[in-house]
Amino acid sequence: MAAVDSLQLNALSLPTWAVHVSSVVEWITAMALACKYGERKGYESWKCLS
Fold first, then answer.
1. DSSP state of 12
2. Which InterPro entries match (predicted)?
3. Number of structural domains, the chain?
């Protein structure tokens, strides 16, 4: 029973997961936009950012 209690204390809360997931989505979007910008403008260095 003590093992279950310690797992619950270390579990991430729903708001923490929401922040984590939104941060990952934000980074993926930024990388995709940088890659598209590099393709459209012909800047290979921008494509390397992603």
1. P
2. Uncharacterised_Ycf49
3. 1
